[in-house]
Amino acid sequence: MFSMTRRTVLQSAAAAAAFGLAGKLEFTRPAFAQTPVEPTVGFYKYTVGDIEVTAIYDGIWKKPHDPAFIKDVSVEDTKAALAKAGLTTDFMPIPLTVVVLKMGGKLIMMDAGSGVGQWQANATHLPANMAAAGIDYNAIDTIMISHFHPDHVWGLMEKGTNTPVFPNAELIVNATEYNWWTDPTRLAKLPEGRKPAGKRIAENFPKWKNWKLVQDGAEVAPGIQIVAAPGHTPGHSVYLANSGKEQLMISADTMYVPALLAPHPEWQGAYDQDGPTAITTRHKIIDRVIADNIRISGSHFPFPGTGVFVKDGNAYGFTPMQI
């Protein structure tokens, strides 16, 4: 028999409100139990005010368990967190969702995905799923980049030739992020495993003329503000979209494995360049989302990449939206 906990009650009630559910709720089991490894659909549309949001599935990294993935945390503990969230423990599931906003007569893509054959073998679906959603690559007006990790920007370039995929789209990014990664002196300071990515960025991104570098807090398009969220990378940023009284926070990698980092926000991920700063940012962004009742999407949340956070002491409960 399933026993209701304070966290589950809060999560279920918050999720019902956020996802527009009405009527009597029957709490038979957690909303996130039995989360599938991969979705049965390639895209999903929802609205935030007058904004049409299309969540597009790029794929999944079935990452082998690694004791270094979370600093000073054992594989057994990370597996326990996955199991508690209803996820597989056979590997670390890291799905990737790209969001496209239709607002103000424009198509705005939030990050560019991982690029076919450029990141993980199971992350090749973005082009086909965008087409299925009725979105033409050539119709994208603007791409707002959260940070320069491969799973977010390799989709800007063709494999092998590095030819730009979106030569006519405006590319928006925090100036701190751009300047950090395109500074050739940074390469020597990167871990060996990240040097090839750093080299590719430094050699190609400065050639493109469609970059727009912006500062924290800038309105990057009507109704969209960039918000600095450093730690994961030096210039990692989130974007806050507004429509009337409704808001959507595109949170990128602020909470990149919510099954682990929601109940344990103090855990430091191996992919956070500055772990302590990432932890501070995590609390700041998620606390704001909760306090201001902001809808949130995350690049690595279970598809369709949106859900509800609630406070649980110094940690959080998380209910992903299921379709």
Layout of helices and strands, plus pairs?
Blueprint: H1 6-18, E1 43-48, E2 51-63, H2 75-84, E3 92-103, E4 106-110, H3 126-132, E5 142-144, H4 150-153, E6 170-174, H5 175-182, H6 195-204, E7 211-214, E8 219-221, E9 224-228, E10 237-243, E11 246-250, H7 258-261, H8 275-291, E12 295-297, E13 306-312, E14 315-320
Parallel strand pairs: 4-5, 5-6, 6-7, 11-12
Antiparallel strand pairs: 1-2, 2-3, 3-4, 8-9, 9-10, 10-11, 12-13, 13-14
What does this structure look like?
The protein is of the alpha/beta class. It has a single domain, classed as Metallo-beta-lactamase, Chain A (4-Layer Sandwich). It has eight helices and 14 strands. The strands form two sheets. A seven-stranded mixed sheet has the order 1-2-3-4-5-6-7. β12 and β13 form a beta hairpin. It is globular. Mean pLDDT is 90; it is low at 1-13 and 20-34.
Broad CATH class: Alpha Beta
Order of strands in the sheet with the most strands? Answer: 1-2-3-4-5-6-7
The CATH architecture classification is 4-Layer Sandwich
Number of individual domains: 1
- Uncertain spans, ≥5 residues at pLDDT below 50? 1-13, 20-34
Question: Whole-number radius of gyration?
Answer: 19 Å
Number of helices: 8
Give the class from helix and strand content and strand pairing. Answer: alpha/beta
Strand content: 25-35%
According to DSSP, the number of beta strands is 14
Question: How would you spell out the order of helices and strands?
Answer: HEEHEEHEHEHHEEEEEHHEEE
